[in-house]
UniProtKB/TrEMBL annotation:
This is Mannosidase alpha class 2A member 1. The lineage of its organism: Eukaryota, Metazoa, Chordata, Craniata, Vertebrata. GO terms for molecular function: alpha-mannosidase activity; carbohydrate binding. GO terms for biological process: mannose metabolic process; N-glycan processing. It comes from Zosterops lateralis melanops. Residues 110-315 form the Glycosyl hydrolase family 38 C-terminal domain. Pfam families: Glyco_hydro_38C. SUPFAM superfamilies: Galactose mutarotase-like. It comes from the Eukaryota. GO terms for cellular component: Golgi membrane.
Amino acid sequence: KDNLINIFSVVSVNVNSPRVKLLSPLGKPVTVQISAVWDGATTVSHEAYQISFVAHLPPLGIGVYQLLEDESSEAVLADYNIYVRNSRQEKPDRVFKIKEMEHSVDNIILENAYMKLWFSGMSGLLEKINTKKDGKNHQMKVEFAWYGTTSNRDKSGAYLFLPDGDAKPYIFADPPIIRVTHGKIFSEVVCFFHHVTHTMRLYKVQGLEGQSIEVSNIVDIRGEYNRELAMRISSDINSQNRFYTDLNGYQIQPRLTLSKLPLQANIYPMTTMTYIQDVGVRLTLHSAQSLGVASLKNGQVEVIMDRRLMQDDNRGLGQGVQDNKITANVFRLLLERRHGTDMNEEKAPVSFPSLLSHMTSLFLNHPVIPMTTNADSGIPELITTFSPLMSPMPCDMHIVNLRTIQAKVDTKPSDEAALILHRKGFDCRFSNRDVGLLCSTTQGKLKVHKLFSKFRVESLTPTSLSLMHSPPDARNISEINMSSMEINTFRIRLR
């Protein structure tokens, strides 16, 4: 597990029976949600079931959970409402409770301890969010849109984006099939459009994972001709043509949408996050993949998810973009309150994410890695937990890598390792109370002997980022001291 704090994370695995019992590393029963595995939009598979539970893991560590088949299973089954044309009310299923219904003007509602979401009963798309801490409603309209390409001789290609004007709304003749899941660990709304399967999932867990909405789009534009598909979120945030994107996940760059420029000049790359804000609220779209983003109207964020272009754009590739695959795009939508801000500062050349935002990004880009093994495969009993760090890392410090260094003569590793640390810069005017972060900040200081619990640090010496050069005054240090926004590399000897 990569995240360097004690982590509560929802883990999902597929099993072949709905009668299961799960034991934690300490041997205690764990609450489990059982969800259906679907063949298409409305057919339940009875070959497999998905179980989801909250795993509690130590930083950089391993936790071993035991999965048993148990007739008296106390696992909680998810319920389903499916909005479909010509519905036939109760849909018989031997395991799950599934109700079919007609599309309606009534909203679909999901909620957890932090927020309440309203979705359209016709399209299944998000319409507004209520944040429970301050009781405020925020308009938050999700839509899809198509970009075409210009009718001029030079058209869009792999490198150039030359649209034929503003994006056209994604129009669907029939309302999509909408599948709503209500469960104990998570609830979700899935909409099946022709080119995109759109999921919004709300986790019902305390802490980090419950405070943002997981958005996933499975995009398939393999049959399209010179078109690009974008997801657009329109909010009531007064962003004043400003938005912010990150540079390689390391720093945030303010951007200004200028109406005098052509549309394509207002689109910027996003590596891990983009946000818009006003005096009271910040809306961050965290991304698990790099994409192009824009904020073309006040309060709006849009992200281009896939493009299919039939011609070369004379930049050396020699072909269009026609090798499209079905593409998964995963995001997290985070809405935060801002305190103590004034409008002068909105024009400042720097901006920082909040600590919660950094952690949410880590969650998306360094997820828990589930691994399975058969209990009767003859392997020796595994340790139930492995916890190499003495205590969680400070919230703003991230271990980029801890890896062996090859010996100079032999192909074997030497007795030294490389420890690469990154200290993030964050905006401390966002409240960290009640956000459930299980770590603290230490002004960039770390005592070396308090790093590892199972190992003794014999020596730790600063070196250049690439490990090629050590400064002339390099010596064994007992405390790491890092400034914000810095990355440092150390040679470390463990015993």
